[in-house]
Amino acid sequence: TEEMGIISGALEMKTKTVKDIMTPLDDIFMLPVEASFDFDILTEIECRGYTRIPIYEGVRANVVAIINVKQLTLVDLKVAAPVKSLVDFYKTDLFFVFENEKLDFMFRSFREGSRGHMAFVQKLNDEGPGDPRYETIGLVTMEDVLEELLQAE
Ligand code: ATP
Ligand code: ATP
């Protein structure tokens, strides 16, 4: 029944992790910080339909900002504003979580809302030479968590 689906969804919130439900890095629509909002990129943003666009520097695993499409309202089509200028103007803190973070924590954090409704899933990469470093491996939004909670069997 639908009720059983909701109850098992609720129980799984304590054991499932963000890694289990995230949108993996390769599937994220994101832009490099050195891009500009020219006609082609604005058209692609429109086609993809996402509200939040992560911005990376260097490699995709290095997310440095989010642009909300609402922030593109004032972009002048004739000038092709650099992504960097919007990132600097609308400085937002990013919400990072570890890959093993549980969904019940995610739900409470998103509901509370002070860090927005998108979080970046991090893992510690200690392979190879050099210091261990954090890398982004995916993202989760409130929508992903709700889908998990409300799953009907
Ligand atoms: P909203 O519903 O607030 O307009 P949205 O539709 O852009 O936002 P969500 O509803 O939060 O995004 O998420 C829908 C799905 O899309 C989720 O699975 C989420 O992980 C994924 N998603 C969100 N943003 C991106 C993005 N930039 N690239 C790839 N997947 C994304
Ligand atoms: P939505 O509410 O449409 O799902 P969102 O929560 O990601 O999107 P906004 O709607 O633009 O982002 O903002 C909601 C509130 O959360 C605002 O008060 C905004 O200032 C705040 N906020 C959004 N993103 C962040 C962030 N990354 N860090 C801190 N505060 C944020």
UniProtKB/TrEMBL annotation:
Entire protein: which part is shown?
A: 301 to 453 of 672
**Stated family:** Belongs to the ACDP family.
Which branch of life, at top level?
A: Eukaryota
Q: What is this protein called?
A: Metal transporter CNNM4
Cell compartments where the protein resides:
Basolateral cell membrane
